Amino acid sequence: MYVANEKRYENMKYNRCGNSGLLLPAVSLGLWHNFGDTGVYSNMEQMCFAAFDNGITHFDLANNYGPKPGSAEANFGKLMKEHFRPYRDEMIISTKAGYDMWPGPYGNFGSRKYLIASLDQSLQRMGLDYVDIFYHHRMDPETPLEETMGALEQVVRSGKALYVGLSNYDGPTLEKAAKILDERHVPFIINQNSYNILNRTVEQNGLKETSHRLGKGIICFSPLAQGMLTDRYLNGIPADSRVRTDGRFLHEDQMSEERLAGIRKLNDIAAERGQTLAEMALAWILRDGIVTTVLIGASRPSQILDNIKAIENTSFTAEELAAIDAVVGA
Ligand SMILES: NC(=O)c1ccc[n+]([C@@H]2O[C@H](COP(=O)([O-])OP(=O)(O)OC[C@H]3O[C@@H](n4cnc5c(N)ncnc54)[C@H](OP(=O)(O)O)[C@@H]3O)[C@@H](O)[C@H]2O)c1
Question: What are phi and psi of 27, to 5 degrees?
Answer without folding.
Answer: -120, 130
